[in-house]
Every structure is written in structure tokens, then in C-alpha cells.
Amino acid sequence: MSVEYPCTIAALDVGGTKMAGALVRYPAAGTAPEVVALRSVPTEAGRGGDAVLDTLTALVGDVAADADGTIAGIGVGTAGCVDVRTGGIAFANELMPGWTGQPVAAHLGATFGLPVAVLNDVKAHALGEARWGAARGAQTCLVIAAGTGLGGAVVAEGRVLLGAHGFAGELGRTPCPDALGTPRTCGTASELESIAAGSGIEARYVAAGGERVAGGEIARRAADGEELAGRVIREAGAVLGEAIAMWADLLDPEFVVLSGSVCNAGPLWRAALHEGFERQAPPIMHGLPIVDAALGGRAPLIGAAEYLLDSLKG
User: What is the arithmetic mean of pLDDT over 41-48?
Assistant: First the structure.
């Protein structure tokens, strides 16, 4: 199917706390998209998956009402693992109760009579950064989303890598012996997320005798010279850097893009990350650009729009 320009897409970003919607406009083929009519509403995930789908549907309607002309389709980036065959939610964790099994693409398509493409939110973020952000022009890049949890995505040959089940890039589950014994809400696991994500940083700080405080406060204490906070922050950065080296050795990306709240953990974290990477990476990988994301909250919206365009072009 061909795409006619100028082109406008309704783009949505669904998270556990809030969902954002906007129009993504392409004045002409190959031109940078404009994100306009941006708005957000609480997800209220605790009300259940049916209520979240109703909220999403209403937000799509509100965004579409701001369009000057025809909308080419709807692109959605959402928390959870997306069934790439149906555009439904194959799995979502306890932060989105009842989201598993929701037929997002089918429901929105039937409601609005438009093409719909649904993608995991981190993959949408990665596609936005690869096409129009920090890794613009790269054919291959690795995107790390280090926030409360740890996610990732791979863009290969200019397209986001989905895998056989839509699960490619779930980097937080990478085995990490250093994390063995770290308490988690779902039990004890030796996964990278348990040490490198914000939730892991907070849990390790408490387990080592620190107060129960937010990750940002731990980073502040580390910057002020507190030994325990500094150790936890450096460990988190170092193991993530080592893991990036392992992934880079497998994927050989042109860029690594960092996003998420943990990336604001300060110079101790960042220095440890680069040291861990250089220590683990083969010499040919030394100097690989590890850069910060550039698009902020626009990235998953632009990525969702790009994924819709990809689906229309075939």
C-alpha cells in the first residue's frame, strides 16, 4: 500500500502510569516528522485492562479530532509484550493488570476504520531514536531503557527487530551472577534488571543497610560522597557496561543509545558504565558511540508512527 504525503498519523504511547497521544505529521516523504496536539491522561492501570482500552480509545478519538484532514492510521507503542501477528497484548506484568490478552489493534481498527500497528513501547522508542533521533542514519543500533525496570530494543537494517514472538530485545532478563541474592518483588533472581535498573539499585541499597529511598536520592548521596551509595551506583553502571559489551559483541551496532531515569544517576554511574564496557568489549569495539537519547517523550510517539508507516508500505 502506498503512502500519500503530506501524511498524518495518530500516535499513542501507553505506559503503566500515563498514556500520551499526539498527531505525527510528515510534510513530505523523507522529511522529519512534527509532533503536534500532544496530550496525556492517567492510565489508571489498576482499573483493569478493559478500562485501559476504553481510555486509550477515547484518547485516540480526542487526538484524531485535532487533525485538519485525513489520518493515515493509528500507531501504538505500549507496555507489555505485543503479539506481532495480531497487534494484541501477549503478556503484561503486574503493573498492568488485565492488559494481557487485550485486542488493541483489532479494537481500534474496528472502532475507527483505520489501519492500526501496535508495538512494544521500548521498541517504539528505539525506532524513533534510530530514524530521527540520537542514532539517526544508523542501520543498526542498540537502545537501552534503564528506568524502574530495564528494557531494550534492537534496530537492524533500519527496522526494529521483533523476533519470532515479538520478544526480541528483552535485555533485562540477561543472566547476571552479581545480582544473585538481590531481593525482588517477584522473588530472588540473577537477572541484570535486579542490579542495573532503578528498582534494583534501590533494593541493593536497602539490602546493604541503607534507607529505603528513591534511586534519585541514592544517586545524590553517591555524588555527595556516601560510600554505600557510591558503591551501589558504581556496581549498577559497571554491570550494565559489561552487558552492553556482550550485546555489542553479538550485534555489532553503530550506536548504543541510553534512555531512562537511571541514566541521570551522575558521573560515578557513567564512568563505571564506560569502564565496564571497555573492560569487557573486544578491542575493535572500543570507542563505540554510547550516546544519550535525543527525542525524550516524543521518541515512542514518532516510533509508533514510523511502525505504522512501515506496515502500510509493506
Answer: 95
How does pLDDT run across 164-205, given as a tens digit for each residue?
Answer: 877 888 777 777 766 545 554 444 456 788 889 898 999 999
Angle among Cα 103, 104, 110 to the nearest 5 degrees reads: 90
What are the C-alpha distances in Å from 219 to residues 12, 122, 216, 234, 257? Answer: 32, 24, 5, 10, 21
| Predicted pLDDT of residue 16 | 86
> 300, 308, 314, 311: which is closest to 26 by C-alpha?
308
pTM listed for this prediction:
0.86
Q: Which helix (H) or strand (E) holds 150?
A: strand 150-156
CB-based contacts of 36, cutoff 8 Å, min separation 6: 22, 23, 25, 66
Opening angle at CA 248, ends 183 and 91, nearest 5: 50
123: left (phi over 0), alpha (psi -120 to 50) or beta: alpha
**What mean pLDDT is predicted for residues 2-21?**
92
Kindly list the strands in the beta sheet with 290-292, ordered across the sheet, starting from the edge strand earlier in the chain: 159-160, 150-156, 141-146, 255-259, 290-292
Taking the C-alpha atoms of residue 63 and residue 268, their distance in angstroms, rounded to an integer, is: 42
pLDDT, tens only, 214-257: 999 999 999 999 999 999 999 999 999 999 999 999 999 999 99
Length of the chain: 314
The answer to whether the Cα torsion of 112, 118, 120, 124 is positive or negative is negative
**H-helix or E-strand spanning residue 88:** strand 88-91
